[in-house]
Design goal:
This protein is of the alpha+beta class. The chain has one domain. The chain has a 4-stranded antiparallel β-sheet with strand order 1-4-3-2. It has a two-stranded antiparallel sheet with strand order 5-6. Helix 2 crosses helix 7 and helix 2 runs antiparallel to helix 8. The relative contact order is 0.20.
């Protein structure tokens, strides 16, 4: 959501009240803080070289249910079985001043969105989808690159693995859809290295493959990191 700088303070407050959130003066590519990647570019390049390169499998049989209950705590991925669902775990990790500071149910906080550079105030409620939890390797993409061959519990882990999850700007996440690195990258260019490092790590952990176009897009980004 973009707030024009010339809005009065009272109007800004009214807009914030209506939407349950507020943002700074809109996305500026490269302006926001950039979280580090999970692995180094060199390690990501090594992992990428080991990933099989294949065409996409059909989407036949795909549904979100193939990856288990959304945001379950019942998984063996890192951070599982802690009594809180995955969505709250990721919000607590990614939001500044997440409230409550203890307990599971995150009701508010500020996201410094790595995808756009915006700062977004999150308030749980009808408009809380302004902040969404993104699967950096989208589940549809995972299904077409090997996940349909995984056992059900392993797919559930993939969908709830914090290494594959990031709190982000909701509208930007919706634009991404199930796109891979060949078709979609974060608007904030300095985050692209970390973004594809996450994707390579996750695909390596779960035995997924990449398409030729995806491989080449990731390789090009890592080369410039």
């Amino acid at each position: 959501m973009r707030i024009v700088v010339t809005l009065s303070v009272s109007l800004l407050a009214a807009v914030s009240l209506l939407c349950g959130c507020k943002a700074t003066t809109g996305p500026v590519a490269g302006a926001g803080p950039v979280p580090p990647g999970p692995i180094s570019p060199a390690t990501a390049e090594q992992m990428l070289a080991q990933l099989p390169i294949k065409g996409r499998a059909p989407m036949t049989g795909y549904s979100r249910d193939q990856f288990g209950q959304a945001w379950t705590d019942d998984n063996s991925a890192p951070g599982g079985h802690n009594g809180c669902d995955t969505r709250d775990d990721i919000l607590r990790r990614d939001l500044t001043d997440a409230k409550p500071a203890t307990g599971c149910h995150i009701t508010s906080g500020t996201l410094h969105d790595p995808y756009t550079g915006k700062s977004i105030v999150f308030v749980r409620g009808p408009k809380s989808t302004v902040v969404q939890i993104d699967h950096m390797v989208p589940l549809g993409d995972a299904w077409q690159t090997g996940a349909q061959q995984l056992p059900a519990d392993r797919r559930r882990d993939l969908a709830n693995d914090p290494r594959n999850l990031q709190s982000v700007d909701g509208p930007t996440n919706e634009q991404k859809g199930d796109g891979d690195a060949a078709t979609w990258l974060p608007p904030q260019k300095p985050y692209r290295c970390a973004y594809v490092e996450h994707q390579v790590e996750v695909k390596s952990i779960y035995g997924l493959w990449v398409t030729r176009a995806e491989h080449d897009a990731i390789d090009g980004i890592l080369h410039d990191c």
